[in-house]
């Protein structure tokens, strides 16, 4: 009984003095990851026409970011390159992308999407359970309220995408 | 841990986070105080059975409070792009509900308990977690025994459910069932629990008759850093965990943990303590290695020791006709070690080789039992062309059992070593873009009953990307065990006249048979909208060769003492049963911060008696099964990282005389910052005490009481 009462008092005290902490929006966080990936991924030189060509991020499927992704990359420059965000409706447009984010809505279409870009140096990022198993490179998972990364390094290597060891070290490495 | 206010911000992005009303800031405090007061008041009261005011209040708190208006929150997005990757990985997202639950491709009734569900359930043990799953019946028998059945056949030793922890079977080969007290994992380390209702024999083999419970712990990579948690309350009087995870060179990670639990004694139905309280110490580790881009290795192990009490009523076979009721205190210990190597071949297919050893030593009704299981498993998963996905595997298992004579339970022979070998193959064929067929079978040989095979077929149709309709047919078996074949036990005595008596004896069968299920199922899943998903399944199950108990001709024993009559009863495998039912589970996120889940499970079982069947156990599957179960859960995320969660569950009566009951659990949590979490949980708030299951041989049932548990955890 003493325990329960003291606990009540303790809890009341900490509740009363709660700090203003906030959690972040899932897609705001994922947008920040996409921006960071550009810093920790190397594309082969032939992926860009010139050293100042922008990095094209494409969204396939229902855009879950709202304005978050545009805001995250607006005005940002990574190794001399700015960013362009595109919503892709037709899979044939994917060849111009450097990074493709495949929304959860497209999880039944993964094979078709990967088939379209399998010969291009395109970093694929997804958020579906089977994403890396189907051949995707980086997958977002939500675990205990945190975003976790799964990386299929083999798939990236096959498309000449080099992922830095720092990023690999923070991710769960999965295989096809 | 990084909170948003610490992120360097760019001036172009104003940072103003505004909550619409200060009322929401005091609401959590008021709620916490209200629930604490309700619990304190309730716990002081003596046993009552009427619907009292505090009961109604408890119900109202749980059910009505979440019905608050949507917690509108306006904020300008802060700039996260300046944060490092490490910091981003530490951030908490507002809601997991936004993530669309992938429609499982499986042609089976699968339910997944996520880490978020685990945390927000407030459960302190795995059996209470399994109460979340529609179609699973969890009944607590006393403080350290549970009867957990899927689609019927709930029993202390529920022999038709297979349970695996990280690929290691924890199904007890002696009595066919699971000793849940020995599965005392740190719940924080569980990544997910997959519960598959219905037969899983094709892949998992014998004993996966009515379901498979697959508990998977997190990779050591995801548990880096320290974790300390401590909690206490009225039923779980103390529980503490200390864990640390670090790196081994460039390629490996590890975690080690120590856990302590102290569980209070429960109450006997007639009043008084059952003296069945227990405490356990559990130490364990897991290490995960990326040996090469194509090889990973996992090595893990546990050591567990417990001391527990067991209230029982038993015949004392050495002093017939003496029958005694008493509490026995005894020690239990368990150890296991497992290694798994995954390798990806050049053609993209992957293989896994797993070896484990599992040892348990415990006292059951006065008899010392120890058992050891050694298992080697190989699996290969390969895609053949674009249409076929094949998994095949081989398994060999050696089980050694030593069974000491108890008060009345004995075995002849009292030790044995058995070999189980099996192979399986399963092929998923894409017939069309929206239609796939999976066929496969297990081929198995055990030392009790020889060869068995367990085929299955599933057809899955995805009319749209958000819907799946499936049909399946499968056969599964329960392998005979040492109780079936070797048990010798005087279970009851009765007077036959002045100074004379009779004894009912149970004997194992010299010719055990495999209990067999032929099962037909259909199911439908739909992600109806971003915020609503529905999963429905229905089954028709035919059981054959079920174990029954048949009386034989009585005989007299004349010996040094007074002569007495023995009524021998022998296990036979002549029972048949048919069950029909279904489960429904609905998930709804009315707003991002609020998730509601509802579930129901209905089952009708009919046992047929063979003409020769004079069964003294009228179908343990039917008696241990509620026909109806309903549940409603709510997870509400409040501003300032407060959480308010509740559940309401109705479990129908058992025909053996356990009345229906309704459980109400509630949890109030606060994730103070990224490091520190607080929670207070009340369980069984609606009634002071209730029974969930009848007594079993060697275990007297006790009452589950209203309880409260508070916990603090700190990650660093």
Structural class computed from helices and strand pairing of chain B: mainly beta
Number of helices of chain A: 6
Q: Figure out the total of helices of chain B.
A: 8
CATH architecture of chain B: Beta Barrel
**Helix/sheet category of chain A:** alpha/beta
Low-pLDDT stretches of chain B are 1-77, 94-103
Return residue spans of chain A where pLDDT drops below 50 for at least 5 consecutive residues.
1-22
- At the fourth level of CATH, the homologous superfamily of chain A is Response regulator
The percentage of residues in β strands of chain A lies in 15-25%
Distance between the termini of chain A: 55 Å
Largest interface, counted by CB within 8 Å of the partner chain's CB: A-B, 63 and 68 residues
Name of the CATH architecture of chain A: 3-Layer(aba) Sandwich
Rg from Cα of chain B: 27 Å
| Structural domain count of chain A | 1
User: Number of DSSP strands of chain A?
Assistant: 9
Can you put this structure into words, describing what you see?
The complex is a heterodimer of chains A (176) and B (716). Chain A is an alpha/beta fold and 176 residues long. Chain A has one domain (24-173): Rossmann fold. Chain A contains six helices and nine strands. Chain A has helices spanning 2-16, 26-40, 68-73, 110-117, 153-158, 165-169; strands at 41-42, 55-60, 83-88, 99-102, 123-126, 138-143, 146-151, 162-163, 172-173. In chain A, the strands form two sheets. A seven-stranded mixed β-sheet of chain A has the order 3-2-4-5-6-7-9. Chain B is mostly beta strands. Chain B has one domain (17-75, 106-711): TonB-dependent receptor, beta-barrel domain (Maltoporin, Chain A, Beta Barrel). Chain B has eight helices and 37 strands. In chain B, the strands form five sheets. Chain B has a 22-stranded antiparallel β-barrel. Chain B has a five-stranded mixed β-sheet with strand order 3-8-9-6-7. In chain B, α1 (23-44) runs antiparallel to α2. The N and C termini of chain B lie close together (8 Å). Residues 1-77 and 94-103 of chain B have low confidence and may be disordered. The chains are: A alpha/beta (176), B mainly beta (716). At the A-B interface, α1, α2, α3, β7 and α5 of A face α1, α3 and α4 of B.
């Amino acid at each position: 009984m003493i325990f329960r009462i003291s606990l009540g008092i303790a809890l009341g005290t900490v509740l009363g003095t709660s700090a203003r902490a906030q959690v972040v929006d899932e897609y705001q966080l994922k947008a920040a990851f996409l921006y960071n990936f550009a810093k920790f991924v190397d594309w082969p030189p032939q992926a860009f026409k010139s050293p100042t060509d922008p990095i094209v991020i494409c969204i396939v499927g229902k855009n879950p970011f709202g304005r978050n992704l545009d805001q995250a990359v607006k005005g940002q420059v990574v190794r001399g390159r700015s960013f362009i965000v595109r919503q892709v409706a037709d899979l044939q447009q994917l060849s111009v992308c450097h990074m493709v984010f495949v929304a959860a809505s497209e999880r039944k279409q993964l094979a078709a999407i990967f088939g379209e870009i399998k010969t291009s140096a395109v970093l694929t990022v997804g958020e579906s359970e089977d994403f890396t198993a189907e051949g995707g490179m980086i997958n977002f998972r939500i675990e205990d309220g945190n975003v976790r990364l799964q990386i299929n390094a083999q798939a990236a290597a096959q498309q000449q995408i080099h992922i830095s060891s720092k990023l690999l070290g923070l991710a769960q490495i999965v295989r096809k | 841990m990084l909170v948003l206010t610490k992120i360097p911000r760019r001036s172009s992005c104003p940072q103003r986070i505004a909550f619409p009303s200060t009322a929401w800031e005091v609401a959590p405090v008021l709620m916490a105080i209200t629930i604490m007061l309700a619990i304190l008041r309730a716990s002081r009261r003596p046993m009552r059975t009427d619907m009292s005011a505090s009961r109604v209040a408890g119900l109202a708190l749980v059910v009505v409070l979440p019905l608050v208006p949507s917690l509108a929150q306006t904020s300008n997005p802060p700039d996260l792009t300046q944060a490092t990757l490490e910091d981003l990985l530490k951030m908490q997202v507002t809601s997991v509900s936004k993530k669309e639950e992938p429609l499982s491709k499986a042609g089976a009734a699968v339910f997944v308990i996520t880490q978020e569900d685990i945390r927000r359930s407030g459960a302190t043990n795995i059996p209470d977690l399994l109460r979340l799953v529609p179609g699973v019946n969890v009944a607590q028998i006393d403080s350290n025994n549970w009867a957990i059945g899927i689609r019927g056949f709930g029993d202390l030793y529920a022999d038709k459910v297979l349970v695996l922890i990280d690929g290691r079977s924890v199904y007890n080969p002696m009595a066919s069932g699971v000793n849940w007290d020995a599965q005392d994992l740190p719940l924080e380390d569980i990544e997910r629990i997959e519960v598959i209702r219905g037969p899983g024999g094709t892949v998992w083999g014998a004993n996966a008759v009515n379901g498979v419970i697959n508990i998977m712990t997190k990779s050591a990579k995801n548990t880096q850093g320290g974790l300390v948690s401590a909690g206490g309350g009225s039923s779980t009087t103390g529980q503490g965990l200390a864990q640390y995870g670090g790196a081994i060179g460039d390629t490996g990670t590890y975690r080690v943990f120590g856990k302590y639990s102290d569980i209070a004694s429960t109450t006997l139905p007639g009043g008084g303590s059952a003296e069945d309280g227990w405490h356990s110490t559990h130490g364990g580790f897991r290490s995960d290695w990326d040996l090469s881009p194509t090889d990973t290795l996992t090595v893990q192990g546990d050591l567990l020791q417990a001391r527990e009490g067991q209230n029982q009523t038993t015949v004392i076979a050495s002093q017939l006709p003496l029958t005694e009721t008493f509490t026995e205190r005894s020690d239990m210990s368990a150890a296991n070690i497992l290694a798994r190597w995954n390798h990806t071949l050049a053609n993209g297919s992957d293989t896994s080789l797993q070896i484990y050893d599992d040892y348990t030593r415990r006292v059951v009704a006065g008899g010392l039992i120890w058992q050891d299981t050694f298992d080697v498993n190989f699996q290969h998963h390969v895609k053949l062309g674009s249409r076929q996905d094949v998994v095949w595997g081989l398994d060999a298992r050696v089980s050694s059992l030593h069974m000491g004579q108890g008060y009345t339970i004995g075995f002849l022979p009292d030790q044995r070593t058995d070999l189980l070998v099996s192979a399986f193959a399963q092929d998923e064929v894409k017939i069309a873009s929206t239609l796939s067929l999976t066929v496969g079978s297990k081929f198995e040989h055990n030392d009790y009953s020889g060869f068995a095979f367990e085929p299955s077929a599933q057809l899955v149709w995805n009319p749209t990307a958000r819907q799946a309709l499936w049909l399946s047919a499968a056969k599964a078996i329960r392998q005979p065990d040492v109780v079936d074949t070797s048990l010798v036990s005087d279970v009851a005595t009765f007077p036959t006249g002045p100074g004379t008596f009779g004894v009912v004896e149970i004997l194992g069968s010299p010719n055990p048979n495999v209990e067999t299920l032929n099962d037909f199922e259909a199911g439908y899943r739909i992600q109806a909208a971003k915020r609503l998903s529905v999963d429905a399944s229905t089954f028709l199950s035919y059981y054959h060769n079920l174990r029954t108990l048949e009386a034989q001709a009585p005989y007299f024993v004349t010996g040094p003492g007074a002569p007495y009559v023995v009524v021998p009863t022998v296990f036979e495998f002549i029972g048949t049963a048919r069950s029909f039912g279904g489960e429904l589970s609905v998930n709804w996120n009315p707003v991002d911060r609020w998730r509601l889940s509802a579930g129901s499970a209905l089952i009708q079982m009919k046992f047929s008696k063979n003409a020769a069947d004079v069964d003294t156990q009228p179908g343990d599957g039917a008696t241990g099964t509620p026909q109806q179960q309903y549940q409603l859960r709510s997870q509400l995320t409040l501003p300032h990282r407060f959480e308010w969660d509740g559940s309401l569950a109705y479990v129908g009566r058992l025909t053996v005389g356990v009345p229906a009951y309704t459980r109400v659990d509630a949890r109030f949590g606060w994730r103070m910052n990224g490091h520190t979490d607080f929670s207070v949980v009340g369980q069984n708030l609606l009634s002071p005490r209730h029974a969930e299951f009848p007594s079993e041989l060697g275990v007297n049932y006790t009452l589950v009481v209203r309880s409260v548990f508070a916990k603090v955890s700190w990650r660093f």
